[in-house]
Design brief:
By secondary structure, this protein is an alpha/beta fold. The chain has helices spanning 4-11, 17-28, 32-37, 45-59, 64-68, 92-102, 119-127, 140-152, 214-223, 242-251, 279-284; strands at residues 2-3, 42-43, 70-73, 76-79, 109-113, 132-137, 158-161, 173-178, 227-236, 255-261, 267-273, 292-293. It contains 11 helices and 12 strands. It comes from Candidatus Accumulibacter adjunctus.
């Protein structure tokens, strides 16, 4: 007989201690407190086999979120699968910055481009229920996961399958957020760290010899046609792409250009707004604490 305590001890000899604990809790349907208080609780033969299979997959580099089927993001649990990018903690900065810009608006129109698992759209709708949120993704499989997460958290979001602005027609928004693929196709990191198990189209623009910014160029280039006067565009990008993204925002005719670092001090999100009637309101709301401004 294998107990949950023994299973945890054996698993952590092969994988990270925390990963081992979470896999045991997942298979045994127990909490951390249960694991500590009742280590002698037995696992069934089926549970032992399930745990062994999950540990083996984790040793091969498959993301823990894929193994347990969910991940925490901005205070909520979200379903994930191999069809979507696993949400990263640094992307929570994008939510923080977006909510600051939505706070003073009565019924803001929001677009999430390349929604993936829907964590941005769902988080924004949960914290700003008066917002009208539309989420776009080219992957039908990703939208299945996104809709599942919207239902899980009881929010109403309009999901549309399509390529960036393509399915939005002439719609305009107070806020557009995007966490597009920005890893250069030649980046060696794509072959390590669990990335081979995530959808390639969510990681890189696929341009051979490119800089990873092709999708970002499309998003920034089309922003002026889809923002309301004074509306904001917020884009996540790579650690070494801040300067290039700020230049793209400037070339697109947007103003108030800024970049914010994540908790590791890495330039992570850049933003700008379409000139218009909300310029004065935005400045009064104290949004200009950025690390860079053009």
């Amino acid at each position: 007989m294998t107990t949950i305590g023994e299973a945890w001890r054996l698993a952590r000899q092969r994988i990270d201690r925390l990963d081992a604990r979470l896999l045991v809790e997942h298979v045994a349907s127990c909490s951390h407190a249960d694991l500590l208080a009742h280590p002698g609780r037995p696992l069934s033969a089926l549970q032992v086999r399930q745990l062994e299979a999950l540990v083996q997959r984790r040793t091969s580099g498959e993301p823990l979120a894929h193994l347990v089927g969910s991940v925490g993001f901005y205070g909520r649990e979200f379903s994930v699968s191999a069809d979507v990018l696993v949400p990263r903690p640094e992307t929570e900065l994008l939510v923080e910055l977006a909510l600051e810009r939505l706070r003073a608006l009565q019924e803001p129109a929001v677009a999430d481009l390349g929604t993936g698992s829907g964590v941005l759209a769902v988080s924004l709708k949960c914290h700003c229920p008066q917002a009208r949120v539309v989420a776009v993704d080219l992957s039908a499989a990703a939208l299945v996961v996104a809709r599942m997460n919207a239902a899980r958290h009881g929010v109403s979001i309009r999901f549309i399958e399509g390529d960036w602005y393509g399915p939005l027609g002439g719609e305009r928004f107070d806020l557009i957020v995007a966490n597009p693929p920005y890893v250069a196709m030649s980046d060696p990191h794509l072959a390590s760290g669990g990335l081979p198990f995530e959808p390639r189209m969510a990681l890189t623009d696929g341009v051979a010899g490119g800089d990873g910014l092709e999708c970002t160029r499309v998003i920034i280039g089309g922003a002026a046609m889809h923002l309301l006067p004074g509306g904001w565009l917020l884009v996540e990008h790579g650690h070494d792409q801040g300067e290039a993204v700020r230049q793209l925002l400037q070339e697109a005719g947007l103003t108030g250009i800024a970049t914010w670092p994540d908790l590791a001090g890495i330039e992570r999100v850049s933003a700008a707004r379409l000139p218009g009637s909300r310029d004065r309101e935005s400045q009064q709301d104290g949004f200009f604490f950025q690390t860079h401004e053009l």
